[in-house]
Amino acid sequence: MQGLLSETAGLVTFVRTVQTGSFSAAAKSLGATPSSASKRVSRLEVLLGAKLFRRSTRVLTLTPEGEAFYERVMPLLREIESSTDVVQSHGATSGHLRVSLPGEMGRLLLGPIFSNFMQAYPGISLEIGMTDRHVDILRDNYDIAFRVGHSDHNGLMSKTLSHLDMVLVAAPSLIERYGKVEETAKLRELPFARYSVQGRPYPVRFADGLEILPRGRLDLDSATAIKEAAKLGLGVAHVLKRIVQKDIDDGSLVVLLPNCELEKLPFRALHAFGRMPNLRMQLLTDFVTNFIRASA
């Protein structure tokens, strides 16, 4: 153990090399030379008795041992980096967070985060990625990801912040073509703008357990795209109610089967830092939770 702890420079260099993709880029971020960065990792490999990288003149890739070591070591180094949180007051909290937000929900959150959270915590800087794709938190180097829906999160800590109402909506023009929808069986006859990830469309689930796999007119992986397709009459949309509420209010979209309760979807925060998130992450998670619940 003492031998590994004595190679902290090698550990940091190894993690940074994986994140940046090369010794030269890692060295630049650490204020070192490429040759010294390479030597640090080589010493670490000797100590471990295993090759962490496959080296060639053009490509630097992780070995299976390197992948396993990275997934174990990177969260630990992040924890050490954030250890100052335990002696900082909330107002004095500082540091950087790399955050993943779901696309359309993220748009609802950006204004409050910019105008309220960042003003309340001037020492915290943010890098925000917005996508409905379920990012690989470890591989893509995110500190925390906010996700809507059910998903595998092996190796991650997950906290459910809220449960969000879903709704079935369609443009008035689509209803004119296909007629009123007065029972769930009618949904099987309608075209949908379906949410689909890696070729797998998501079903429509009702609170009573009924599940319908809609007929696809369009398969999309973005709530924004699904909403726009629905407004143009291309298909029914099964989406979060809050992202189409304005369209419902102005008549651009009409709610189908309003008396049939749909299964709510969980809104989660995921991270890979052991059982407790660092203070920056906790502050942002609490802020997002309070905003989501207050705006329900």
Description of the structure:
By secondary structure, this protein is α+β, with helices and mostly antiparallel strands. It folds into three domains: 2-81, Arc Repressor Mutant, subunit A, CATH 1.10.10; 84-164 and 266-294, 3-Layer(aba) Sandwich (D-Maltodextrin-Binding Protein, domain 2); 166-263, D-Maltodextrin-Binding Protein, domain 2 (3-Layer(aba) Sandwich). 40% of the residues lie in helices and 24% in strands. It has helices at 2-5, 8-20, 23-30, 34-48, 64-81, 103-120, 172-178, 223-231, 241-249, 279-294, and strands at 53-55, 60-62, 95-101, 124-130, 144-148, 157-164, 166-170, 191-197, 200-201, 204-205, 211-212, 215-220, 237-240, 254-255, 265-271. The strands form five sheets. It has a five-stranded mixed sheet with strand order 4-3-5-15-6. Strands 13-7-14 form a three-stranded antiparallel sheet. Helix 2 crosses helix 3 (23-30), helix 2 crosses helix 4 and helix 2 (8-20) crosses helix 5. The protein is elongated. This is LysR family transcriptional regulator. InterPro entries: LysR-type_TF_proteobact-type (IPR058163), LysR_HTH_N (IPR000847), LysR_subst-bd (IPR005119), WH-like_DNA-bd_sf (IPR036388), WH_DNA-bd_sf (IPR036390). Residues 11-63 form the HTH lysR-type domain.
